Amino acid sequence: MSTVQWRKSSYSQNDGGACVEVARQLPAVRDSKDPHGPSLTFPAASLAAFLAAVKSDPSLSSRLLS
């Protein structure tokens, strides 16, 4: 997955903390602290539904970040 472009949320801190990155070319996520480590791939519809739920429910977002 070396040619995959990864995107980190604009809400992420620049200190390299607990961030995940999402791949642009395929539905995958990885730990930003370990860019050469494993990534998790999901069916596109499942990842889209998860991201939509997190964006639409502030209480869910805060629970995921704690």
From TrEMBL:
Residues 4-55 form the DUF397 domain. It holds the Pfam family DUF397. This is DUF397 domain-containing protein.
